[in-house]
Specification:
The protein has about 550 residues and is of the alpha/beta class. Helices cover about 30% and strands about 25% of the residues.
Length: about 550
């Protein structure tokens, strides 16, 4: 509602400019028509062709009878097709569901049946994962086949993507609608239970793209985002809209390279060939690229790389700098769309490895429009003194407003009117945030979440197990790996760790847990520390393990 003050009424001809995703294309379609978008070593398009393809795709989706508010799910590697889906699907008023293909098939089916997509874009390489289950997702009426290998399409699909596009008209008029229309949804797999659906409106995605652009581009040249950059995402596009950065890159009109499946040798090849200058990924991917680069004795020429998903260690930052990668941190989570903070550099300090390392590995400084506070358990704001730790809580225009069809969890997320990250941090007087720990005991391995409770449940089924706890222990390559501590029942002395771990391997084979959910190690202990209410005291357990006392 607008309270019109006399004389300040808008002209009936004035355009109110809703913040909808189509507006992100305004600059590019004027300035960047000859700029190019590449799909690995398989295809290339100009922005002019890309815009035509979005319109063709919109005609395909409309002809399939999809209506505003319907969900369209995508299962693909990082590709130009995914980028086209980022735009065409929400621009029609449909909801894009980016499916996390790293979940177990069981969990993938859960997310599809929870979001109830009408249509599914399915890469032929994921056919084995979904093939036998096509009938287990009754909401899906239309499946579009995505393929790079001339794989014969199964009879239940409506057609192959390129073929459908080639037959469609290349003009489509995208209508305006309310900017609060939901644009995308994604499922986050937390500590317990089933994955939860986060969702974002057009307005939220547009404001996030603008704020991230500001947060990244206000940094000095060596690390900041520029119109001249060449962009390649190395964060899967199913992870909260590829961390929102493909929207940023398209809005700015950058040359873009979509690398398909992440194969370290190909990532390095593409980065060198196209002189990629801006990217983002989790530490594990960076490690793989560094290993590949050192085996081939290659250095990157100042490649700017934002790290998120797991903590960037000083050791890893150093080795990235040695290989010519300007690495620094951003922070966020699925619920926050995701970017909340970005490491911010002081121009007065030259960016030498010696004086910039602490900045590079800090959690960063809030980007524009973010209200970030550190609270104690009573909801009181803690001082910005760089040492008093509490929970990070935030307000920004782009946070998920609840969880899809899970109001209770949404209410808990928003206790006291701020979104609770469940991360423990302190903030200094310059706004630099350092996340030190987290409330939840979820284990982060290679940028993916592993539920400690789920693994405990599986291993506890072994008849010799009297008590069990699983914690994350630091791991140079994966960030964290699960460690299982088991108290044996009496008279089970002949049982070995491998006997019990066999249950985890079976669960992986049955597709109940992902491979990274199998603990690296299982230790037998006499007792497991408990809290006063009898729960496993994971904080104490982690300390004892770190000190070599457990």
């Amino acid at each position: 509602m607008h309270d019109h003050i006399h004389g300040y009424e808008a002209s009936p001809h004035a355009y109110p400019f809703p913040l909808i995703i189509k507006q992100l294309l305004n600059r590019a379609k004027t300035v960047s028509l000859d700029q190019e978008i590449f799909y690995a070593d398989k295809a290339r398009f100009t922005y002019r062709e890309f815009l035509g393809r979005i319109q063709r795709f919109a005609n395909v989706l409309t002809d399939l009878g999809l209506k505003r508010g319907d969900v369209v799910a995508v299962m693909d590697w990082d590709s130009h097709r995914y980028l086209e889906a980022y735009f065409a699907i929400p621009m029609l008023g449909l909801i894009l569901q980016t499916v996390n293909i790293r979940l177990s098939p069981e969990k993938i089916l859960y997310t599809l049946n929870h979001a109830k997509p009408k249509a599914l874009l399915l890469n032929s390489e994921f056919m084995p994962m979904i093939g036998n289950h096509v009938h287990d997702v009754p909401s899906v009426e239309k499946i579009i086949w995505l393929d790079d290998h001339a794989t014969p399409a199964p009879d239940f699909v409506v057609g192959e993507y390129e073929e459908l596009l080639s037959r469609a008209d290349d003009t489509f008029e995208f209508e305006d609608f309310d900017e609060n229309t939901i644009a995308t949804t994604f499922y986050t797999s937390g500590t317990t239970g089933d994955p939860k659906g986060v969702f974002f409106s057009h307005r939220q995605i547009v404001l996030h793209a603008m704020a991230v652009t500001m947060g990244a581009s206000l940094n000095p040249d060596e690390v900041g985002l520029r119109y001249s950059d060449v962009y390649m995402p190395i964060t899967p596009m199913f992870h909260v809209n590829g961390w929102g950065i493909p929207y940023v890159a398209t809005m700015i009109g950058l040359k873009q390279i979509y690398p398909s499946r992440y194969v370290p040798s190909l990532l390095v090849d593409l980065a060198i060939k196209h002189k990629v200058s801006f990217t983002h990924c989790v530490p594990t991917i960076l490690q793989m690229m560094l290993k590949e680069a050192s085996e081939r004795d290659i250095a990157f020429d100042g490649l700017k790389m934002i790290i998120g998903g797991s903590r960037l260690t000083e050791g890893l930052a150093k080795s990235a700098l040695v290989h010519g990668i300007q690495v620094y941190t951003a922070y966020g989570m699925s619920e926050t769309c995701p970017v909340i903070t970005v490491a911010t550099f002081d121009k007065k300090e030259p960016l030498t490895p010696e004086n910039s390392l602490a900045t590079r590995v800090s959690t960063g400084v809030p980007v524009p429009l973010v209200d970030l506070q550190i609270w104690n358990e009573h909801g009181q704001i803690l001082p910005q003194d760089g040492k008093t730790a509490g929970e990070v809580v935030v307000r920004t225009p782009w946070l998920t407003q609840s969880y899809f069809k899970n109001q209770d969890a949404g209410d808990e997320l928003w206790t006291g009117g701020y979104l609770h990250t469940q991360d423990i941090a302190h903030m200094d007087d310059k706004g630099v945030v350092r996340v030190t720990d987290r409330l939840k005991d979820v284990i982060k391995s290679g940028g993916e979440w592993v539920s400690s409770l789920e693994i405990e449940t599986i291993l506890s089924l072994h008849p010799s197990v009297a008590d069990i706890v699983v914690i994350g222990v630091p791991d140079d390559k994966w960030g964290e790996r699960p460690l299982a501590l088991v108290v044996k029942k009496p008279n089970h002395d002949d049982i070995t760790p491998d006997d019990i771990l066999a249950l985890a391997h079976q669960a992986y084979e049955r597709e109940i847990i992902p491979k990274y959910g199998i603990p690296n190690e299982l230790r037998f202990v006499a007792d497991i520390p408990k809290t006063s209410v009898g729960k496993h005291d994971k904080k104490v357990i982690r300390m004892l393990v770190a000190d070599g006392e457990l």
